[in-house]
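Write out the 3D structure for:
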Amino acid sequence: MQIRPRAVERIAPSARFHSWRVLAGVMAVETLIGCTVLQPAATTPVEYGYKDAEAELDHFLCYVIDRNETDAFKGAKVTLKDQFLDEPKPVDVKDHVLLCNPVEKASSLDDEGKPKEGEPKNTPRHPLAHLVCYELVYDFRTARTVTNQIDKDGRRIKVVSAYALCAPSGKNKVTKEDPKPKTPEIPPEKDLDHFACYSPPPPETKEPPGKVVHLKDQFVDGNFNVKSPQLLCNPVDKTVKGEKGEREMKRHHPNAHLVCYSVSPVKKGPVKEQAVIHSQFENPALLKTARVEYLCVPSTKKA
């Protein structure tokens, strides 16, 4: 807006100074021959990047479930909606497939393979918020470009089918000192979303060993080779019918995705641990792990 010079002359100097202070930082101010011209300050759109995803989501280390020594899951029917599904989709949730722990990740290692002192680590913000993943079966084909701490320049991932629904869960480890731990609490919904995970086609060639990182959670503490991405996981809205009617869980962090890379320990060996878990599907259940399978990394996704 342009203010006439005569109008400006009627304003006391102190009032003009006060008006300039109020507008500073919101409008750009120019003075032209006794006239004051106010222009909107330039703004630059801020793109949501993988570091923003890391601020909302932890890294996870996922273990394959040994179904032979795990409480049976009777299944459930839910309705899901994510960025791949234009309309809510009714699906059958089947048996356990993965238990995922929040994990500390160190990427900078010294010559002995130990985390370098003073170098940044990815430390869990919600160490009690785990994921238990249940089998999903339906075909869905698409491709997306993901960006994260491992693929900083972006990687195109093609998916061909749904793999699992991962539900926020509490977990208490079974130990000799505590063979029957108490049932843990489900983490608050604002701390961790549900995820629908999709898998790519099988690799045509054997994967070479990838980058070595140090991973530490409640089960393991060691170095792992990070290989190719095997799952793309979207935050998802979930609706489930119960005795008290329908309950809907909305996404709280719709832009924070997970990309799960296959990993192999530098020092081989099974990881057979037991834990009591509590999710919105089970309260409680006893799970046993068989081996480490995936490192899931906070990521962004675009078409």
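The first strand starts at residue 27 and ends at 32.
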